[in-house]
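so my prof wants the structure for this chain in the tokens format not the other one, which i didnt know existed until like an hour ago. anyway here's the sequence
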Amino acid sequence: MTVTGFIVNNINQQSNREQLKSAAVMIANTVSEEIDVFEQSIKNDLGQIVTTLEYYSASGTEQRYLDEITKTLEFYKELTIVNNKAQLEQYRAYSMRDNYYVLKRRIKDGRYLVAILDVEGLKRNLFKTLTEDQRQIYVLDNNGDLIASSNYTEKGYNTSLSELPKNLEIDKPIIYGKVKNQPLVYLKKSNPEALILVNTTEELKQDAIDYNRDKIIISILVTMFAIFFVVGLYTSYLYTNIRQLFKAIIAISKGNYARRIRLLTNIFTPFEIVFLGTEFNRMVNQIHKSYAQLKKKNKELKQLNEFRSNMIDTVSHEFRTPLTSIQGYTSRLLRQDIEIDEETKQKSLLIIKRQSERLKRMIEDLLVIPDIEGARLNVNLVDIPINTIIENSILLVKNNSGREIINNVQDCSTKIVADTDRIEQVFVNLIENAIKYAKDDTPVTIDCEEQEGKLVVSVKNEYEFIPREKLKTLFDKFTRMDDSTTRTTRGTGLGLFIVKGLVEAMDGEIRLYSTEENGFCVKVFMPIS
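here's what i got, hopefully its the right format
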């Protein structure tokens, strides 16, 4: 038992050490992702503001617009325009002692848009998922100045910097430091340029390693004395049955709710022992059923919580840009102090209309999810030619890039059984996805063929090879080809989930294919009339 205790203690210490390293790496990646999301959000905001400023002619009206934006967006302490680099250097004099962070964006006329961010707001966004973690986290800019921190101490900050290697690897979390039970992690980002440092504190090390080690040693000692006691106590047939009862109780306390008491019964076994074993087994059966139900409910609750979190993140990210656009252009059209020509009015109204339609599509996608998940989607099945469906869908597609769409279905008059509006929604979604994710200067191709009594419509584009594991997840809610750190296209990540639900509601089937030779292909199998 003593030798076993030392072995178990050593294994536990090694395991906890690896857990500390993995947790520090995970936190560095989490902060990196939060920086990417925050940086993209700020970039989109400043880009939209600079674009809108091009339509203001007077400096007073520009500053009033910037003041209005400052009140609307929580991250900004101040938005202003400077005329030259000398004035810009004055704003750069802000430091961490002032709790501000300064960004700039060049305007076409040579001036600069200066955005002063509240560092406290920056910290709340970077560390919003790590409020209860005891590790010290430091974020530095490309000049080595501290931008934000969590659980800051002067000693921890200096230790993290002093042990930092001279040559840093890029875009990869690296473990460093001299104390093996207190791992340090750095992650040097290239875009945006930043350095993330994660320091495992002494208190965390004690909780994870020292405290568990003491518990294991004490547990081993207690177990040793318990074994001697049990061996001495259970020397008869009666005590053998009692030992069975004790083992079952220990198993239940450790979560093994399938354990039952197996008594060695004969005419000498007391009735009380038999009664106790029977009632104990009955109690365990009830606990096991309740535990199984609780696990199922917890799993459903976790899925619901993930859905809620993803929906909030998606809505906040995807709705912000069109709403900002609509707000900016509407405010400009309502201005009475400047005269706007008819061409500018029409251009502004067209942008407002497009952004409104985009919001409408995203809202409709969110509203159709409960019907798909609850199998309550109503469809009106009719016979309709496939070439008519594809032609109407192409007309409805927003092809702002002017990408070529090769329609090889226009001469196919085969009729399928489908809901006209729903099937058009399916192909509009598929064609728009193909346009968004296709390689530059490559067409989108639509073909059809008959297979085993069904009409198979294929939508193809040229795209990088997608592994089979990734393909399986594309039908899940809020899943995208590009993740949050590499996102280059807009969207909620609900398209393929909704398309799959609509196709299956019309007794159809949808499959995804990806090869290095043929790119990406979606095949829709629909019943022929």
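also thought this was worth mentioning. The chain has a mean pLDDT of 79.
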